[in-house]
Amino acid sequence: MLELANQRVLVLGAGISGRSAAAFCAQQGAQVVLADEQGEAPEALAGVELRIAQPFPDPADFDLVVPSPGCRPRATARAQRRVWGDIELAWRALAVRSPA
């Protein structure tokens, strides 16, 4: 099972995918920052800090970085921790049991 409680999570990109990933991580107890260098601020998300229209925070300061599909790869180049796309985050969140 995926354990995100008390983890610092950086979600890059505030589009549909990024907002969904940020909301999910916050619901799991993570400390979430949703960052987007461009665009307008989305509606507030419970438990999510928004950093919009400013440079991305340093990914090395986070336990997990979740770049949205449209995020440029160099935005996560300095990440020293886990970097998962939104699909991998969803896959890891699934508690699938194998048939007996």
Describe this structure in words.
Helices cover 20% and strands 22% of the residues. The mean pLDDT is 87. It has 100 residues and is an alpha/beta fold. Strands 3-2-1-4-5 form a five-stranded parallel beta sheet, with helices on one face.
Short description:
The chain is an alpha/beta fold and 100 residues long.
Structural class given helices, strands, pairing? alpha/beta
User: Approximately how much beta-strand content do the residues carry?
Assistant: 15-25%
Q: Would you list the SSEs in sequence order as H and E?
A: EHEEEEH
Q: Average pLDDT across residues?
A: 87
Helix share, percent = 10-25%
According to DSSP, the number of beta strands is 5
Form type: globular
Strand order of the largest sheet: 3-2-1-4-5
Flag low-confidence runs: none
| Rg of Cα set | 13 Å
User: Helical element count?
Assistant: 2
C-alpha termini separation: 19 Å
Q: State the major sheet.
A: 5 strands, parallel
Helix and strand topology:
Elements: E1 8-12, H1 16-27, E2 31-36, E3 48-52, E4 64-67, E5 82-83, H2 86-93
Parallel strand pairs: 1-2, 1-4, 2-3, 4-5
